[in-house]
User: Fold this.
Amino acid sequence: MAKTNSTVVPHHVAIVMDGNGRWATRRFLPRIAGHKQGVSALNRCVQACMERGIGVLTVFAFSSENWNRPPEEVSGLMELLGLSLAREVPSLKANGVQLHFVGDRQRLSDKFRAGLTQAEQATEGNQRLVLNVCFNYGGRWDIAQAARKLAAEGQEITEMALDRALALAHVPDPDLVIRTGGELRISNFLLWQAAYSEFHFSDKLWPDFDDAALDEAIAVYRSRERRFGQTSAQLAPESAGDSTMKAA
Assistant:
């Protein structure tokens, strides 16, 4: 009989938060209104993850390709993130959330970069939940920057060395990757880290993603058998779903 993760909560959940713009358009609202509702959905998701014992939450907030969106939407997103930092960081700090911003910061203003750094420093001692916000991030960028780093240091570029040089080296690879909004692609998100992740695609637009939707994704994850290149017969019951296990 195949072994599943029936009693296991994924340690690391990663989410492509898709559907903010469509949520707003369906309500005849400006797209930025959908992004504001998306922030509220993220707040709910952070709380739900902590309540369920999830240790790491990684979210795709702004991709390196999102700069190609209309300028007014991009500027609105930047302003929204700045406001969210000022409003949410004290609460995240009080609730034990350790915040990381993952992505290329070179294109961001000095003031914006300073705000991200201050938010990270304010929460660096927390251990209840690690929240990685991927901002100006792309999976290809991540692999390329890791390779450049190793080359500059004169290190041999091996799988293990690349793994340590990636932007998410501070956390184990995601056990479960969720994409909302009904699209069936990963859009340059965690290309390296998601090699052995379980995937769940939800039709819910991100502002509508709630506790029940998260529980549905976790239930799907629990029904899966994670073999990491092995056979079912090789897996011991206690090792199935081990989030720290690397792909063979």
The beta strands are 12-16, 56-63, 97-102, 129-137, 176-179, 198-201. Confidence is low (pLDDT under 50) at residues 243-248. DSSP finds seven helices and six strands in the chain. The domain at 12-224 is CATH 3.40.1180.10 (Undecaprenyl pyrophosphate synthetase).
